[in-house]
Amino acid sequence: MKKITIIIFSVLFILLxxxxxxxxxxxxxxxxxxxxVSGPDYYTNKVEDGGYGFSSEYNYGIIAKVxxxxxxxxxxxxxxxxxxxxxxxxxxxxxxxxxYSQTITSVGxxxxxxxxxxxxxxxxxxxxxxxxxxxxxxxxxxGGMEEKSEGGSRGGIQVGLGTEVTxxxxxNLDVFAGYNWFNLTGKKDEEGTMSAFVLDVFLMFNFL
Length: 208
Description:
With 208 residues, the protein is mainly beta. It has one domain (2-19, 28-207): Porin (Beta Barrel). The chain contains 2 helices and 10 strands, in the order αβαβββββββββ. The chain has helices spanning 2-17, 41-44, and strands at residues 25-39, 56-67, 73-89, 97-114, 122-135, 138-142, 145-149, 152-168, 171-185, 195-207. It has an 8-stranded antiparallel β-barrel. Strand 4 and strand 5 form a beta hairpin. The radius of gyration is 19 Å and the shape is elongated.
């Protein structure tokens, strides 16, 4: 995962200094939002019902895009950090509190397709990204004890819908809603497909 992140940032750096892209628009932004886990059931069920109790949690990260002249497709890359937490008591009628937590580092590469070919102050788009996801250790805390289950690297995809709104000529606001499948490849036996909705806002800075 570290190697993948280094490769992405290296590509973005080359794009910034390459004279062949001077006629293009490079955008780099930072922001965050919410991650709402939608599956599998053992992730979303309440702790009282034998699940981890994951629901809506925060995420944060960075994104970069390279606008191509004439072509309505925009290459994009991002790194997003998801923090998942669930807490509850175990049955039957127990007062013993159990807390579950896990992090997901998601590195994505893809493209977005703009609906409007000319500048209009807002630019709606559809996006498709291939993601490389590092599922952190699942941590369980209960009664002063802590246990960890090893995570691992998985491959997935993200589809989304967003829009960029111009604030001033060099600064945009990128509002994005997407759906992720984090572990379509590399799953262990009996591992369910982990999916989530994301809703994010990025403050984008434009460079010629």
